Amino acid sequence: MSVDPMAYEAQFFGFTPQTCMLRIYIAFQDYLFEVMLVVEGVMLKKLDGIPGCKISPSQIRKCTEKFLLFMREHFDKLFAKMEEVMLQLVLNIPKHVLLPEDRVQEQYPYSKEEFQALQDELQQLQQQCRAEAAAEQALRAELEEQKAVKAELEKILQCFDGLENICREHGAGNFKESYALLTQSAKKLQDVLKDVEQKSEKMKQHDQLM
Predict the structure, then answer these.
(1) In the chain, how many domains are there?
(2) Are 60 and 47 in contact (CB under 8 A)?
(3) How far, in Å, CA of 102 to CA of 106, rounded?
(4) Which of 109, 124, 160, 206 is most deeply buried (CB count within 10 A of its CB)?
């Protein structure tokens, strides 16, 4: 049997040429063995009908086995020549022939160095994608945190609005200085709230782009 893997032929046929030849060889061996059994059976019947025949079935079996060995030896020699012809002229794809699915390589040839460069570039792109995904996850977490902070700030502003309304209703004059401080604090909180809202809007736009 040939040791050449003949991978290109296997790609085309769906099986290796060596496997095909091995199956042919086994089929011929099985057929030869079956023929010898049939011949032996016919000889036994013929000899059984001859009066005074002294040839025993064991002697016929020995002759059959000897003849089978002779046939197998000659068949192996013939099959070796047939295998060589089949692998070279029938089941062989010439070196200059390309399969249809490989013709794109002829149009766009590339060297090992170019292929390695493409592999490196692909690996870099995969790393960038993983980094972008991690950054997107971090931005989402920050956006959720800002939403929670915004909700708390809105509650605080509502408390200040309530205090302002109470002061107006009761005319608390001694509360002016405290109220001025509270108003300044409320102003600062409103500024912080606006900043949070602006950042939240930017985060939403970035999320849509991703």
Answers:
(1) 1
(2) yes
(3) 7
(4) 160
The pTM assigned to this predicted structure is 0.46
Report yes or no on 127 lying in a domain.
no
User: By residue range, what is the domain housing residue 43?
Assistant: 7-97
Q: Hey, how many other C-beta atoms are within 10 angstroms of the C-beta on 126? A: 10
SS (H, E, C) the chain: CCCCCCHHHHHHHCCCHHHHHHHHHHHHHHHHHHHHHHHHHHHHHHHHCCCCCCCCHHHHHHHHHHHHHHHHHHHHHHHHHHHHHHHHHHCCCCCCCCCHHHHHHHHCCCCHHHHHHHHHHHHHHHHHHHHHHHHHHHHHHHHHHHHHHHHHHHHHHHHHHHHHHHHHHHCCHHHHHHHHHHHHHHHHHHHHHHHHHHHHHHHHHHHHHC
pLDDT of residue 174: 47
Residue 141 lies in a domain: no
pLDDT digits (tens, 9 = 90+) for 64-101: 899 989 999 999 999 999 999 998 888 888 887 777 77
* Residue among 201, 206, 72, 189 at smallest CA distance from 139: 206
CA 32 to CA 65: how far, in whole Å?
A: 12
Residue pLDDT, tens place only, 128-146: 999 999 998 888 888 888 8
